[in-house]
Amino acid sequence: MKATLRLFKQLFVLVCLFGYGRQACAQTKYAQVDRQMKEFCRLATEANIAFTLPEGFKEIAPVNNEDVAYDYGITLPGQEFEVWFEIKPYKQVTKYYANADSAYINIAKEQVSVFSADNAYFTRNLDERILTQYNADAGKSYLVNLSDSPVTRHYKYALVITLQKDHTGTIMAICLTNDKGPEFFKYIDKARNCIKFK
Length: 198
Prior knowledge:
- There is one protein chain.
- The protein has 5 helices and 9 strands; from the N terminus they run αββββααβαβββαβ.
- Helix content is about 40%, strand content about 30%.
- The protein has a single domain, classed as Protein Transport Mog1p, Chain A (3-Layer(aba) Sandwich), CATH 3.40.1000.
- Residues about 1-30 have low confidence and may be disordered.
């Protein structure tokens, strides 16, 4: 009887420790996302950008390594689809680029060169209707075949979208998927109104 009681107590202690450990890990993950969101909001405010988490999406932990560093990321649970955002306020852009109002092109090309599996991608200028929707002055999109890499979480394809507003800042959104069929563009459509210049 004493041996059974002792075994029960040990099991109880292990269950409690496991529960506290999981809670501590969850708190660390939430703290990381909270810090990410605070910094993202600070940059958005500085660049005069409005952001609303789209319905059905949830935040994901930041991606930060020597090749990729994004300010904020979201995913559509249950789907192989993520969107990573990077915001560059005008003051920040002027530190690195001589012509800050056309820097969005170089920012995107630099990222595409890191991502591209074969350095082949499809690019196009965003039309005036789309620019008006985001209150932007210029923009481009790049459809890229990705290298199989942990940097891109082993996704196969990305749609890189850059938007720029004169003397305000730049938005880069990376939409990642393993299937660039119609579902990919439906998911993009669900997230398309979440960010824009004010």
